[in-house]
Amino acid sequence: MRLGDNPALRAAVECVREKGGRVLPLYIANDTESGAWADGAASRWWLHHALAALGEALQAKGSRLLIRSGASLDVLRALIDEADIGAVFWNRLYEPASIDRDRRIKAALREHGVHVESSNAGLLHEPWTIKTGSGGPYKVFTPFSRTLSAIPTPRPSPEPEVLPAAPEVGGMALNALRLMPSVDWAGGLKAAWAPGEAAAQELLDDFVDGPVRDYLQARDFPGRPATSRLSAALHFGEISPRQAWYAAEAAQADVAAPWLRQLQWREFAHHLLFHFPHTPEQPLDPRYADFTWRTDYQDDLRAWQRGRTGIPIIDAGMRELWHTGWMHNRVRMLVASLLTKNLLIPWQEGARWFWDTLVDADLANNTLGWQWTAGCGADAAPYFRVFNPVAQGLKFDPDGRYVRHWVPELKRLPDKWLQQPWAAPAEILRGGGITLGRDYPRPIVDLAGSRRIALEIWANEVRNKP
Ligand SMILES: Cc1cc2nc3c(=O)[nH]c(=O)nc-3n(C[C@H](O)[C@H](O)[C@H](O)COP(=O)(O)OP(=O)(O)OC[C@H]3O[C@@H](n4cnc5c(N)ncnc54)[C@H](O)[C@@H]3O)c2cc1C
Fold it and tell me: What CATH code is assigned to 122-156+197-275?
């Protein structure tokens, strides 16, 4: 979804420069080839705008974006015949279904006599090039990061200066893809985001000019604008991790390391997904395969999804997600911990909800985040880590800015009680205009009791297994 640091585009332009011909930038829409993980509603909204921005950027360079839909191989074969195409270039994707599809396409086109070339545009390094001493994949972040840090990060390539005009073949209008919701619920997304390469570049420039300096101290405070908010742009490829890496290093070499480490977590997530492709559905740690999750959880799941659990920082996070399609990382960990540990709801339910509602929904990062929090992933939080959302709220939202913004019905409560209204004396609640159960829910779960139960189950079912 970008022109800069786009190796497939550069290779196509180079090929035309050497051999003559034209370049036809193509997007194939297909909902079924991603298997169970077709884009969710928020991602579809983003994709619509990203495609619009890409189309404009190509037009500004004298080219255009052709959109077609259907089975990818059929679309490619038809175009190869229609426009007499001799070479196809793409940048790789790493979701298991995409890998299978692209392998099939590569083999079929080569058999057909077409030159096919795929490149890495989405990662610092390909997942199969980072290996443990014995040649296998990593399952622990720190040694993975050490190995990654020892290899120089390739430099991003500039955008081609000119693009050859595209051949005239018919395509579809972007609106015909129907990516936008039919009922307009996306006002909050529109207010929060500007998809597209130019906007992503601006976001990156602003971040490396200032906030990256305080990232280490401020990144855990959801009420402060301290993180880059580049996750959707990275997922959709509007910015490349190499561009992000070098921009941060160039601007703030002495203090950029903690943020660069987050880009390495992204690499680690893709490394795991590549080597353990069953993990979007199955726990990486086999001891969790038959874990006793609750089965009667629909009401609690719904309260969690809607931001009506009665636990303020959880509800703030879930409402932020619903309104903006994004949630702060610290709060993602808290809501995931509450769902999987206090409520004993399978992590896959949470991952699915995130998949549909996040603009940055990413199979690798989402799977890592959920399995890490639930305790069943690589290098996971240990089973006995059950975040206490009250203590976390007091620590990371000490002035209540975040909770008051997203849960405004509580805004008149003093800081001391804001994170735990159920514990507040009656006169404090009265003074804040709150009757629990009427203006704001009572908590759907007893935090201390449910923690004890979770620890017992974990100890019995997981800890003692080989
Ligand atoms: C339960 C759970 C689910 C998550 N689901 C997703 C998801 O679907 N998509 C997604 O991009 N991130 C996901 N994350 C990781 C993280 O929360 C987001 O990447 C981050 O909040 C995005 O904000 P930012 O761009 O401001 O991040 P910054 O703090 O500015 O970090 C820069 C970039 O590094 C990467 N990154 C940061 N933290 C992580 C991490 N823990 N794991 C992997 N990559 C990371 C992201 O690409 C991010 O944009 C999840 C985390 C949890 C706990």
Answer: 1.25.40.80
Ligand 1, from 37, 46, 204, 231: best to mutate by most atoms within 8 Å of Cβ? Answer: 231
Q: Whose CA is nearest to atom 24 of ligand 1?
A: 229
Kindly state the helix (H) or strand (E) to which residue 118 belongs, with its residue range.
strand 115-119
Q: Is 144 in the pocket of ligand 1 (CB under 6 A)?
A: no
Report the alpha-carbon distance of residue 387 to residue 404 in Å, rounded. 21
Segment 127-150, tens digit of pLDDT = 999 999 999 999 999 999 999 999
Its sign, for the CA torsion 232, 233, 237, 239, is negative
Secondary structure letter of residue 166 according to DSSP: P
Pocket test for ligand 1, best of 193, 267, 358, 360 (most atoms within 8 A of CB): 360
Report CA(365)–ligand 1 centroid distance (Å). 6
For the chain, residues classed under CATH 1.25.40.80 are 122-156+197-275
CA distance 409 to 188: 19
Condensed to tens digits (0 to 9), the pLDDT of residues 56-107 reads: 999 999 999 999 999 999 999 999 999 999 999 999 999 999 999 999 999 9
Token pair, residue 285, equals: 């740690």
Domain with CATH 3.40.50.620 in the chain: 7-121
What class, spelled out in words, does domain 7-121 have in CATH?
Answer: alpha beta
Whether 358 is in the pocket of ligand 1, judged by its Cβ within 6 Å, is yes
Residues 6 or more apart from 330 whose CB is under 8 A from it? 219, 220, 221, 222, 392, 396
Beta partners for residue 87, in sequence order: 115
* CATH no. for 286-463: 1.10.579.10
The CB-side HSE value for 114 (13 A sphere, CA atoms) comes to 23
Residue 373 token pair:
């929090």
Kindly state if the Cβ of 98 falls inside 6 Å of ligand 1: no
21: three-class secondary structure by DSSP: coil
DSSP assigned state of 408? G
Q: Whole-model pTM?
A: 0.97
- Quick check: CB of 24 below 6 Å from ligand 1? no
Residues of the chain with pLDDT under 70: none
